[in-house]
Design brief:
Layout lengths: L2 H8 L1 E3 L10 E5 L2 E8 L2 E8 L13 E8 L8 E7 L4 E7 L5 E8 L5 E20 L5 E2 L23 E2 L3 E5 L2 E7 L6 H8 L16 E9 L2 E11 L2 E10 L3 E14 L3 H15 L3 H18 L1 E4 L9 H17 L46 H8 L1 H4 L7 H22 L18 H4 L5 E2 L2 E2 L19 H17 L7 H23 L14 E3 L3 E4 L3 H15 L8 H13 L5 E4 L2 E4 L7 E2 L24 H10 L5 H4 L7 H7 L3 H12 L20 H15 E4 L2 E4 L9 E7 L3 E8 L2 E8 L7 E3 L4
Parallel strand pairs: 27-31
Antiparallel strand pairs: 1-6, 2-3, 3-4, 4-5, 5-9, 6-7, 7-8, 8-9, 9-16, 9-17, 10-11, 12-13, 13-14, 14-17, 15-16, 18-28, 19-20, 21-22, 22-25, 23-24, 26-27, 28-29, 29-30
Helix pairs in contact: 5-17, 5-18, 6-10, 6-18, 8-11, 10-11, 10-12, 11-12, 12-13, 16-17, 16-18, 17-18
Length: 776
C-alpha cells in the first residue's frame, strides 16, 4: 500500500475551536515544537525548543503568540476546520465567516533553520494583528515549604536552603519587530550550587558548564507590520504582557515569521549579532526552505511505518488507532530531529498550561506558568531511553544523535566526580542527572534539608545520593552504551566519538566494585575471581542489592558488543582488558518458583521499593541475553509468567512500564496485543497521542516510546543475523510495514488474511535470514 495515501487517513481534523491550550495540536520541525489552537475566535500557539535552559536548568518556553484577524473568519456562525497534514508537516486552519470571508492559515517550522512561518491567505482583504506574549516579566520565586513536590518545576532544587528564582526575560520593539531574550545570570547558576553541594569545587574549572553565558530568544516580524503597543492580560491563571505588531493596511496575504536563536555567547551583543545574521541568512528563502522541508518529511515518512488495518480505516477500531497513534507519536519525536539536546520524556517541546492537567489523580498545579512540568529538567534516564530505542527499527538514526551527544558532552564531568570521590577510572552517571552530568541536587541531598526522600547529614558519604532509589543506580549508562553499539550494528555509521563514553561506562563498574569489595574485605574480587556488584540497586526497586540482574546483563551485553567491533575501534590491549573484565562479571542468579526456573532480580537485596519494575527482564530488553532463537528462552518466559514480585507489573501500561515490551519479546501474542491497545489507544485528550500524565507529565513521551518499542517487537525481532517476523503479531491484524534491521537491512511488506503479501528485503541477500513466526 502507498504510505502517502495511508497518511492522509491519519491526518487529524477538528471542526470546532478549542476550549483552551490543553486542546492544542502539535506541529514542528528541526528542534522547535508548537502547540496550536483557536480559542474564542483567536489563534494561539506556544513555542517549545529543546535548548532553552535558564539559571535553574529549567526548560523555559520561548513564548506564546496570539493572532487576530479583522474581519474575523472565526466569528460566530463560521465554518471552521483545523487539520494537521502529516505528510507535508504543516498545520492548516480554515475559517469561513457568514459574511462570505474565507481565510486559510498555514503554520510550519523549517527543518534546517529555527524559523516559524504563518502564511495567511484570504479571498478578501484582511488586517493582521500578532502579539508576542511573555509571562516572565518579573522575578518569580519558588518557595520551599519542606514538602516533596513544592518545587516540582525545579525538582533539582527541592530542598535547597536558599532562594530559587526564575529571572525575567527582556522584550522590546526594535524597529518593525519584536525582539526578546533570556540571558542567564552567571552569578546564580544551579551548576555552581550543585558543584559546591557535591564537594567538587576543586575541579570546577575543569568541568563543562553549558549554562554559562547561555542566551535564548528570538524575534517576530512580518512585511507591512508595525508596533501597535503593549497589552497586559491573564491566560490560564498566569499574567502576561503582549507586544503587538499590526498591519498598516488590509491585504489578502500576510506572512508572519519568527526566528529563534540559542547560543552560549560571550556577550549579549554577540548573541544579537548572531540573531541578525540568521535573519539575513533566511531572508527571501521561504520557497527553497519549504521545498527542503517537504523533501525531508517525505523521506521521513517513506523511511519507516507500521500501519494496522489500513485498507479499512476507522476511528472506532482499536487496532487501527494503535497504528495511527504510532505514526503521530513518531511525528512528535521528529520535531526535535536536530536539537542540540534530546527530547525530554516529560512533554518534550509540547507541554501546555499546567492548570489543565490532573497529576497522579490528585494534584492539579495552580497558578503555575506554562514552563511548568513535573520532574522539571531532571534527566531521568530510565524514562529517556524509551524515546530512543524505537528509532533503531524505524531507521531514524539521525534523530538518535542528540541523545548520544548528551553523554558525550557530559562525560568529562562524570569522570571527574568518580576521580574526586573514589580515585579510580570510569564515568558515574547516576539516575536523575543534570544536562551537565552531575546528580540533581534533590537526589544528592541538600545538607540539613529534606530532599530526595531523606535528610543529608554532614557525615553521609561523598558522591553517594541520599535518594534510596537512585543511590547506586548506574545501569543506564550501560543502557545507552548498548544503544550506541546497536546503532552501529543497524546503521554501520561512525561511532568513534562515542566510544570513550562506552569504554568509561564499563570501566567504572570494574574499578568501582573492586574498590568497594576491597573496602569491605581487603580483596578485590570474590573467591571465584568475580566482581561483587555491591552495594547496588536493581532498577529503582531492589535496594542494597548484590549482583542485580539488570547490571550484570548490561555489562555482558555491552562488553560483548565492544569486542565485536572492528579493530579500528579497539586496540589489541583494549580487547584483552575488556575480555578480562567480561570474565570477571558474575553469572546471573537463577532461582525457582512454582517448580519452574526463573531469572532472579538480584543475588540478594535488603528491601524493595517500586513494585512495578522487573530488573530481571532487562536481560530480555534491552540487553537481549535471553531472546527468540537463543537457548534458555523458556527461562525468560517463565520469569514473566511466574517470577513477578507484584501482579501490577502484568497490568500496568501507563508511562514507562515495560510489560508490553516484555510480552512482545517473549512471544505472548494475546497479552502483547492487549498492552498495545492500552498503550497506543487514543489518549482521552483532544489530540490522540497526548498521553499522560501517568507518572510523568502531558504529553508523556516515554508512554508513547514504550508503545512504539512494543509494537515493533510484536512485528519484528532480530537475533544475530536472523530476522524473525510476526513473533507476537495477532493473525487478525492486517498490517503494512517498513522496518529496519541490523546490517543496513530494510524489511517491508503486508500481512493480511493470515499470509504475507509482497514481502521485500533489502539487500536481497538478507532474505535467507528471514524467519516468519506467528504463534502464542
Amino acid at each position: 500500500m502507498d504510505i502517502n495515501s495511508i497518511l492522509e487517513s491519519y491526518n487529524i481534523i477538528w471542526h470546532s475551536q478549542s476550549r483552551n491550550s490543553s486542546e492544542s495540536m502539535p506541529v514542528g520541525g528541526g528542534d522547535i515544537g508548537l502547540n496550536v489552537w483557536v480559542e474564542d475566535n483567536e489563534l494561539f500557539f506556544y513555542i517549545g525548543k529543546s535548548d532553552t535552559f535558564d539559571e535553574n536548568n529549567q526548560i523555559l518556553k520561548p513564548g506564546r503568540v496570539r493572532v487576530k484577524l479583522e474581519p474575523n473568519p472565526f466569528c460566530k456562525g463560521s465554518i471552521f476546520k483545523q487539520q494537521l497534514k502529516l505528510r507535508q508537516s504543516y498545520l492548516e486552519i480554515i475559517g469561513q465567516s457568514p459574511s462570505g470571508l474565507s481565510v486559510t492559515i498555514k503554520i510550519w517550522v523549517e527543518v534546517f533553520h529555527p524559523v516559524i512561518h504563518l502564511e495567511i491567505e484570504g479571498d478578501k482583504e484582511i488586517q493582521l494583528e500578532s502579539q508576542f506574549e511573555c509571562w516572565r516579566n518579573l522575578e518569580r520565586e519558588f518557595p520551599y515549604d519542606g514538602k516533596r513536590g513544592s518545587r516540582w518545576a525545579c525538582f533539582n532544587l527541592e530542598g535547597y536552603p536558599g532562594r530559587v528564582v526564575t529571572y525575567p526575560d527582556r522584550v522590546e520593539f526594535k524597529e518593525d519587530r519584536v525582539i526578546w531574550w533570556h540571558r542567564n545570570r552567571d552569578h546564580d547558576l544551579v551548576f555552581d550550587k550543585e558543584v559546591e553541594q557535591q564537594g567538587l569545587t576543586g575541579v570546577k574549572e575543569e568541568m563543562w558548564n553549558p549554562l554559562k553565558n547561555l542566551t535564548f530568544g528570538g524575534l517576530m516580524m512580518g512585511k507591512g507590520l508595525k508596533p501597535a503597543g503593549i497589552e497586559s492580560g491573564c491566560y490560564a491563571q498566569t499574567n502576561f504582557r503582549g507586544w503587538k505588531l499590526k498591519s498598516q493596511s488590509a491585504r489578502r496575504n500576510h506572512h508572519l515569521k519568527l526566528i529563534l536563536h540559542t547560543a552560549r555567547a560571550e556577550t549579549l551583543e554577540d548573541w544579537q549579532q548572531e540573531l541578525e545574521e540568521l535573519v539575513r541568512k533566511t531572508e527571501g528563502t521561504k520557497k527553497s526552505a519549504r521545498k527542503q522541508h517537504q523533501q525531508w518529511w517525505q523521506r521521513f515518512w517513506e523511511r519507516s511505518y507500521i500501519c494496522i488495518n489500513p485498507s479499512h480505516p476507522g476511528e472506532d477500531d482499536p487496532a487501527w488507532q494503535v497504528g495511527r497513534n504510532y505514526q503521530l507519536f513518531r511525528y512528535m519525536l521528529a520535531c526535535n530531529a536536530y536539537g542540540e539536546y534530546p527530547t525530554r520524556f516529560n512533554g518534550g517541546n509540547f507541554t501546555y498550561d499546567p492548570c489543565y492537567t490532573l497529576y497522579r489523580d490528585s494534584y492539579r498545579p495552580e497558578n503555575e506558568p506554562p514552563d511548568y512540568r513535573a520532574w522539571g529538567n531532571s534527566y531521568t534516564a530510565q524514562n529517556q531511553r524509551h524515546l530512543y530505542w524505537p528509532l533503531l527499527k524505524s531507521g531514524d538514526f539521525e534523530m538518535m544523535l542528540p541523545e548520544f551527544d548528551f553523554y558525550r558532552r557530559a562525560l568529562k564531568n562524570a569522570e571527574l566526580r568518580t576521580r574526586v570521590y573514589w580515585n579510580h577510572e570510569g564515568c558515574s552517571f547516576t539516575e536523575q542527572i543534570e544536562n551537565f552530568g552531575l546528580p540533581i541536587g534533590a537526589c544528592y541531598g541538600w545538607e540539613g534539608s529534606y530532599s530526595g526522600g531523606r535528610n543529608r547529614s554532614a557525615d553521609f558519604e561523598q558522591g553517594v545520593q541520599v535518594s534510596g532509589a537512585c543511590r547506586y543506580e548506574f545501569v543506564h549508562q550501560l543502557d545507552f552504551s548498548y544503544m550506541i553499539l546497536q546503532y552501529y550494528r543497524y546503521s554501520d555509521r561512525e561511532i568513534a566519538c562515542y566510544l570513550p563514553f562506552i569504554k568509561s561506562s564499563v570501566k567504572f563498574f570494574d574499578k568501582h566494585y573492586q574498590f568497594r569489595h576491597r573496602q569491605r574485605t581487603g580483596e578485590r574480587l570474590d573467591e571465584k575471581g568475580n566482581l561483587v556488584i555491591y552495594p547496588s540497586v536493581g532498577c529503582e526497586s531492589f535496594h542494597d542489592a548484590k549482583n542485580p540482574t539488570d547490571v550484570l546483563a548490561g555489562l555482558k551485553a555491552v562488553i560483548k558488543g565492544l569486542l565485536e567491533l572492528p579493530d579500528e575501534y579497539l586496540s589489541s590491549s583494549e580487547r584483552e582488558e575488556f575480555s578480562e573484565i567480561l570474565d570477571r562479571v558474575p553469572p546471573i542468579k537463577i532461582s525457582e518458583k512454582k517448580g519452574r526456573r526463573i531469572i532472579a532480580p538480584a543475588e540478594s537485596w535488603n528491601h524493595k521499593g517500586n513494585p512495578r519494575e522487573m530488573p530481571q527482564l532487562y536481560s530480555v530488553f534491552p540487553f537481549g541475553l535471553f531472546a527468540l532463537g537463543k537457548s534458555d528462552y523458556q527461562l525468560a518466559r517463565n520469569t514473566w509468567r511466574y517470577g513477578n514480585q507484584n501482579e501490577i507489573q502484568k497490568t500496568c501500561y501507563r508511562s514507562w512500564y515495560h510489560g508490553n515490551i516484555f510480552t512482545a519479546r517473549l512471544g505472548f501474542t494475546e497479552e502483547a496485543a492487549e498492552f498495545a491497545v492500552k498503550k497506543l489507544a487514543n489518549s482521552g485528550r483532544r489530540f490522540p497521542s497526548f498521553w499522560g500524565p501517568g507518572d510523568d507529565w502531558v504529553p508523556d513521551h516515554n508512554w508513547g516510546g514504550t508503545g512504539m518499542v512494543g509494537l515493533q517487537e510484536m512485528l519484528m525481532q532480530t537475533e544475530g543475523k536472523e530476522i524473525f517476523l510476526l513473533p507476537a503479531w495477532p493473525k487478525t491484524w492486517e498490517v503494512s510495514f517498513k522496518l529496519h534491521a541490523p546490517y543496513n537491512t530494510i524489511v517491508e511488506g503486508e500481512f493480511s488474511d493470515g499470509e504475507f503479501k509482497d514481502l521485500k528485503v533489502r539487500p536481497e541477500g538478507r532474505r535467507e535470514d528471514v524467519v516468519i513466526i506467528n504463534k502464542e
